[in-house]
Structure formats: C-alpha cells, structure tokens
Design a protein that fits this description.
The chain has about 575 residues and is an alpha+beta fold. The protein contains 11 helices and 30 strands. Helix 6 runs antiparallel to helix 7 (about 415-435).
C-alpha cells in the first residue's frame, strides 16, 4: 500500500508540474500588443507599470525604463499590496522610480500575477540600433537562472513615450523581451545590464505567481445601504496617483461581517477585498439546503455580490475567481424565519383563505345556480311537456302498427301466430307502460324491449336479426332515452326487409368510441331516402324528440344520420360523451 501511495503522490506532483510549468515566449510578440494601434486594446486587457532605477538621476545618462504588461482581471489594492501579499517583498528591486495609476502595481516589488496570461516585459531606451550593447537574463526564485544573458532580438513600437535612447528625440521603438509564465508560488526576476558594465544592473523587474481566493470583508443589509455607498465612495475616492490613499478594507466603522440576519434582511451585499475588471471575473454558487443556483457569473462588474429576495434558512455562499476556480471562499449565513413565515401560520392562513374563498365561491355559485335552476326549470318544464306529448303519440302509433300486423295474420288464417303475436304484444305493451313514466332506461331494458318487438315482427315477416353490444359498455349502468330505438327498427322492417321475408337481415349494434357510444341499425332491404323517412310518422317523432332532448342535455348530445352503403341501409345514432 505504501508503494501505491507513493506512486500516486508522484503522479499528482508530476501532473501539477506539467500543468503549471515555466513558459517563456521569446520569439514572437503578443498578438494583442502587435495589432494594437492606439492603445485601446492594451488598456482593455492589461494593467501597465513603468519602472526605472533612480540612482542614475545625478548622471547625465537617462536610465532605461522597463514596462510590464499584465492582466487587469484581478487587482489587489496596489497601495497596500505588500501587506496583503507579503511574499512580493522577497523580490524587492533597487530603489525605484515607478509610474503607475491606481489600477497598476509599483515595480519596486514583485508584481503579483493571478492568471495564466503571465507578464510581458519591454524596455524603453533599447532599440534595434543599440540592442547589441545590452543583454538580459531571467532568474527563478532568486536562485536558478532559467534564461542566461541574452541579447534582445524583438522590437515593438513604444507604448509609453520616453526620451531615453536619444534624449533629444522621443523613443518610437522599444525592445520586446518576451512573455513569461511560471507555476503558482514561483517568482521570476528579469535583469538588464550593459555588456561593457557586467557588474552593474541597468534595471530589473520581478513577478510572483500567487494563488488567490476572494475574501468577504464586509456584509451589508438593505437597511445599511447608506454605509455601503459610503464605503464604495471611499474605495474610489483617491486620485489616480493614489495620494493620501487609505486601506478601506480595514475600515472598522463601515465594514462588519455578519452571519445572522433578521427575517426582513433578505437583500444582502457581500463586499470583497480585491478589485475586478469585469463581472465575468467573479463566480458564485448559493447553496440553500439541497437547492443550489450552480456556479454563475456575478451580476455586477465591481467587487461585491448582491443577493436579493432570499427566503429564510441556512445558506452557504461560495465565491471564486474565474481565473482560479480551484480556490473557493465559503461564507455561511442564516436568515431567521418570521412568525408569519412559519409552517403553522402558513397552514392556518392557507386554511382560512381556502375557507373564505370557498365560502365566497359557494355563495356566488349558489346564487347563480338558484337563478339558473329557476330559468332552466321553466325551460325543462316546457321541454318535458313537449316530450310527454311526443311520447304519448308513440303508443297509439305503435299499437296501430301492431294491430295491422295482427290483422294481417288473421287474414291469412294464421291463428297460431296471431295468438303468439297477441301474447308478445301484451308483454311489450306492459313493458312500454312501465317505462312511460321515466325519460331514460338502462340499455339492457331497451334491448329487451327491442327483442320483444323484433320477435313479434319476425312472426309476421320471418326475417333474422342480431343485437350486438360492445363488451366495454356496461349495458346495466348506462341509460338511453326510452323507446328511442324502436321507431328506427320499425322503419328498417317496414321500409326495408318486410318484403324480403326470410332473406331479410337486421343488425343492431352498440359500439364504444372513446367516450362516445354509436348505435347502428343496419338492414339489407331496398333502402329509402331521407325524404321518405321524414314522411314516416315514427321517424319524424324521433327526430323531434332528439332535438328536444339536446336542449335538456349539456355536455352530452345525440345525433341521427342515415346513409346507404354496400346495398345496406345504415341508421346511426351517435351519443356524444355518453360513456364518461
């Protein structure tokens, strides 16, 4: 096991070294610098420091000036960087004369580098005409020479105007030494000397690669918004040359860290130590129990994170710089729950609200329902009166047709069948009278009455019939209007198969189509047109009855269609939404 652990440790170290190895790009100029014509791109992506030795001030010779270009994504307060990153003091240069604005570091100590873009060095005072007089080298961690003394070979237009190569003329060309990168924790020192004075340095600058995580230096609720504005003003108050500058991160009056907040303090600003150039530089992830926002880009291009409309509970705010995602700052805080935000209060409030809303809805619906019932009652009374009137006409019509059939049997001296017909007729009349008191009856009862009627007519005409029901239809549970099918079957016999005698066939089917029921009466008779059907008294009464029934039904409707197909007449009753 110890050997395996040792191998893993070696692999990890090897991977780290491989990912963060020393790089020196000496043979090409950085494309941003190369393409820039007016300095806009440089100012957008880089901070710039100009540095030279002031021990040449008493001489007639103007000293060389080194210019460093490094990423401006992240900036530790330049005026107090040696207190915040003490390791940069280890790489102190000679007494310096540096020029830098509030967004750049002095060249007196190592310039802290935080991202993989590294640092670019140029030297004002060296050009293509005098480069052979100078040489430079690079030392790692003040111990190891990683680039021996080398003569400058690349040249670039001057970014910072000086008069060094020729004190009477403005320098137009500068020596481009290269772009340098190192592993985190390491430093590079770049030194320049004249070849004819090898024991004296003309100028030197250094850079230190630093691991950096955000640090929360102050927390403000919305009630402390004025203090937040005062601190923000104090941060940016110094003039650009940083005269009389104070370290605002040590302000004990305005800056306080808190981890407990009241229920009404749900809009919180977390103020960070370091200055950023864009909102993309800061990423945060807010964890609340099992919920998480996931890593997201900050909403502001300034050094604070503003969280709004937070619910009560325990939170963990994770903050990192996008250039160093492996270094994360974690800040825990809690927002208290107000009495009106407790579960019990919410349950009671919801219950009371539901009861109040329900009572109001019931009251409104009750009044509307009473009014509708009153109106609908009057309409239904009229419709029911008309339906009873139509239904009362069915029995005389049916009795007349039945007696005609019996008369036909007696005329043929078929006393036996006439007797059977009278018995079947009596049973049918009894069932019809029982059903006459209600508008609807079960499908099974309607089928029974149809079978009684068909058996009567079969005695007279000798046809065959079949009644088919879909197994998905519960014929005992679902109802249809009483005697609605009988006139259709009667018309199929009278106008269709009566003349065919034993060759006549009649099929009555009940089929389920989703929530609808379709009843078909199919015969193989000669058929009849729709005009002929309308003239039939029974069919005319059926159509009027369906029209009136549809007035009393709401989501359910009945329709009647007749068509001729394959030498068969199809009379179809469609019951919409009947099987819901």
């Amino acid at each position: 096991m110890s050997r395996i652990a040792l191998v893993i440790l070696c692999l990890v170290k090897l991977n780290v070294c491989f990912c963060q190895k020393l790089e020196m790009q000496l043979n090409s100029i950085n494309p941003i610098l190369k393409r820039d014509t007016n300095g806009d791109s440089i100012r957008k992506y880089f901070s710039v420091t100009l540095y030279n030795y002031n021990n040449f001030r008493n001489s007639k010779k103007v000293p060389l000036a080194m210019v460093a270009f490094y990423s401006n994504n992240l900036l530790v307060n330049p005026a107090f960087v040696k207190e915040k990153i003490p390791d940069i003091v280890k790489y102190k240069n000679d007494s310096s004369n540096s020029i830098g604005f509030f967004d750049a570091y002095s060249g007196k100590y190592a310039i802290p580098i935080f991202d993989s873009s590294g640092i670019i060095f140029t030297v004002n005072g060296i050009n293509q005409y005098n480069a052979h007089d100078y040489e430079y080298r690079v030392i790692e961690n003040n111990r190891k020479v990683v680039l021996p003394w080398t003569t400058p070979k690349l040249f670039w237009k001057v970014y910072w105007m000086t008069k060094i190569a020729n004190p009477k003329e403005i320098d137009t060309v500068t020596a481009y030494l290269g772009q340098f990168k190192a592993a985190y924790g390491n430093a590079l020192v770049l030194q320049i000397r004249r070849k004819d004075s090898p024991n004296r340095l003309e100028v030197s600058m250094s850079a230190l690669w630093v691991r950096r995580a955000p640090r929360v230096v102050g927390v403000f609720s919305f009630a402390q918004f004025y203090d937040f504005l005062q601190l923000f003003k104090k941060q940016w108050m110094p003039d650009k040359y940083m005269r009389d500058m104070q370290d605002w991160t040590h302000d004990t009056t305005l800056l306080h860290t808190r981890h407990q907040f009241n229920s009404n303090e749900n809009s919180i600003i977390f103020y960070l130590d370091d200055v950023v150039n864009s909102k993309d530089a800061i990423e945060y992830n807010l964890v609340h129990g099992k919920d998480s926002t996931g890593w997201r880009i900050n909403d502001f291009d300034l050094n604070f994170v503003w969280l709004k409309n937070l619910a009560p509970g325990n939170y963990q705010l994770k903050i990192r710089y996008s250039i160093q995602r492996e270094n994360v700052c974690v800040y825990n805080f809690t927002i208290a729950t107000a009495w009106y935000q407790t579960i019990w209060f919410k349950m009671m409030w919801v219950l009371l609200s539901v009861l109040a809303i329900g009572f109001g809805i019931l009251l409104v619906r009750s009044n509307n329902l009473k009014r509708k019932i009153k109106i609908q009652g009057l309409k239904n009374q009229l419709v029911q009166t008309e339906l009873k009137s139509i239904r009362s006409q069915f029995n005389p019509h049916f009795v007349f047709n039945a007696l005609s059939s019996i008369q036909g049997l007696i005329t043929k001296n078929d006393s036996e069948n006439a007797t059977k017909y009278l018995i079947e007729f009596g049973d049918l009349m009894r069932d019809s009278l029982k059903a006459s008191n209600t508008e609807f009856s079960s499908i099974s009862k309607e089928i029974k009455m149809l079978e009684n009627y068909l058996n009567l007519e079969r005695l007279r005409f000798g046809f065959t019939y079949q009644i088919i029901t879909d197994e998905n239809i519960d014929i005992r549970a679902y109802e249809v209007p009483n005697l609605l099918l009988q006139p259709l079957v009667e018309n199929a016999i009278k106008h269709g198969i009566s003349s065919l005698k034993e060759k006549g066939t009649l099929i009555v089917s009940f089929v389920k189509l989703e929530d609808n029921m379709v009843v078909s009466v199919i015969d193989n008779g000669k058929g009849f047109s729709d005009n002929m059907e309308i003239k039939g008294f029974g069919l005319q009464l059926t159509k009027e009855r369906i029209k009136l029934l549809n007035h009393t039904l709401y989501d359910q409707q009945i329709s009647l269609t007749i068509r001729r197909k394959n030498d068969h007449t199809h009379v179809i009753l469609s019951f919409k939404n009947w099987l819901i």
